[in-house]
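Exercise 7b. Backbone tokens:
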């Protein structure tokens, strides 16, 4: 990937939290079911997965949400979730101005 991260860019029926787990597992080279304690921190230790899913779920009338992003650090990566379903995963090392929550 050009920016040094892994992008997952597809709008599907999967939730934003599941897309994050898939993207981090891919970056780590492990299956999604291996992304669990004790080797990996659970996603809910850094962000509420239900809240994340709600932010990026389609509106009640079926329209896609058109704005807003969420970024956070998870498993040593900077995660960026966008309303189009895109999840960008970048190694945290060398990222200026981005702190753990």
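Sequence design result:
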């Amino acid at each position: 990937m050009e920016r040094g991260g892994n992008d997952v860019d597809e709008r599907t029926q999967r939730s934003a939290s599941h897309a994050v787990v898939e993207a981090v597992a891919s970056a780590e080279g492990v299956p999604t079911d291996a992304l669990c304690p004790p080797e990996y921190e659970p996603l809910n230790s850094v962000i509420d997965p239900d809240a994340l899913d709600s932010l990026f779920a389609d509106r009640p009338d079926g329209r896609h949400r058109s704005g807003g992003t969420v970024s956070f650090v998870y498993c040593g990566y900077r995660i960026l979730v966008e309303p189009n379903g895109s999840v960008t995963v970048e190694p945290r090392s060398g990222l200026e101005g981005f702190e753990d929550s």
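Instructor comment: The helical segments are 16-28, 49-56. The two ends are 26 Å apart (CA to CA).
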